[in-house]
Amino acid sequence: MRDRNSTLINAILSTVLSSILLLSLAVNAEVQDQAVEKEVGKITTSGYGSAYFVKANKDIDASGVNPVGSNGIGDDWSLRPDLIFGFQTNYQIEDRASVVLQLKAEGNDDMDINAEWAYFRYELMPDLYVRVGRLRIPYYLYSESLDVGYTYPWVRPPIELYLTEFSHHEGVDLQWNFLLNNWGNQLQFAYSSLDDDVVKVRDTFHLAWTGYSDYWTVRGSVQYTDKVTLLLAKNDLPTAGTDKFIYFNLGGSYDNGVWLVISEFGAYDVGDKLPVIGQSNFTFTVGRRFNQWMPYLSLAKGYSTKSQEDNIERHAIPKQFVKSTYAQQSVGLGLRYEVSDAVVIKSEIVHYSGFENGGNFRVTDDTGLLDPQLIDRLGGSINLMSFGFDFLF
Amino acid sequence: MTHPNRLIKHCHLAWVLGGLVLGCLMALSIRAEADVAVIINAKNTTASLPREVATRIFLQQINSLENLGRVYPIDLPETSNTKKEFNQKILKKTGVVLRAYWARLMFTGKGHAPKVITTEADVVRLVANNVELIGYVAPEYVTNDVKVILLVK
Q: pTM for the full model?
């Protein structure tokens, strides 16, 4: 009798326990199903940052010119020019609609917080999206993630190509993802405008194609507008008219996990009414991974495609502002080390040269032009050393 | 003093044990080279998927196909052996390359890494319950409720 009772109790207990177990599994499954299927109302946050000590062999900052594309670099070690923190929040409004806000604070900007991305995204149909708001301009392979050092090999992308006076614009873009010959493709069409202290741009059309295969990423892009106005009058330079701007870029990267090769070409031209001239720029980088280590070599060159002298004459620009056409090149050697899934250390030395004759440097002032006497202070070349890390959180 | 025969026996025993250990190691290495099965819901009519197309789906470069409709990929944790095989044989990418890839996608607002499901049994169960999900597991986890559309050895 006792055995019978104990068998019955055991059966009841095992049934109850099994039920609880099945119920908990079901609840767990339901929770996970919900997590996979629906994220409506969910806020996700993520971030990135970079902190690099940087030093040049000459006091670039005091020279008043800037061929390295970053302010505040002198002949002492400094962290401020390459300190950056970014924070991104995504909010899923409904199945197809979301909002993204990415805020950024930079050392050179006194750590003031600015919105780098701020847009509403809607999925019109699978693989077709529309975004409205502030967006990064899709110029080059890494233009849209330029602030996220973790995503590329260099401490700072080759400035001859990656100088982005205007990193973002306000407008609308349409993204279409599709498959062709087993390549993943994304076509991006944007209509936008932008304003800042130096320039006013309206009715800009962008078309960018990005293709992905196993090891290749290829991007081609064009941009066109006939409403660019440079606001130069405040520096006693001639007030600029409004004219066209056309831009073209083709680049690709090959990454098989061991070798990384990146090469890009960009060119732009402007209408005669604007007191600036077109340029062509080229970069090439090769890196070889040894477990977590990756040494790399980068080469870059940029040059004017027209004579600056003609431009000076046409616009009656005072000659002391421009000596000759733009030219600059750089050779960089660097080392990247993956500390963990979220942190990489990089060190880099870059030699900038090719501007002995007073080429029209990349400049930092509002004029967009340069007094060649300032160039002479730097001599024929500059070496820039950087050491620090990028991280994700 | 140890008898010579005993020594020979010990030697034999050492060989046998060594062989067993070697066998186990080989078995482990075979497990490390395991197959990966890409699975969808059994109700889906699609019979097969080229490896390259599966790659594009799991890298979030496309999220719909004519024969599959809208698909949501689901992933396994970094620590999973099947995940490592999947990265190598299907995505053709190392962990380092993938991490930079997902960071780029996420901070350009173009997508994010697929949802990570803790176990392969859960992946099978979720795919069996949802026609829009696509996942991958080691073949021994496959049940009749899901369909293998790609098997990579």
A: 0.83
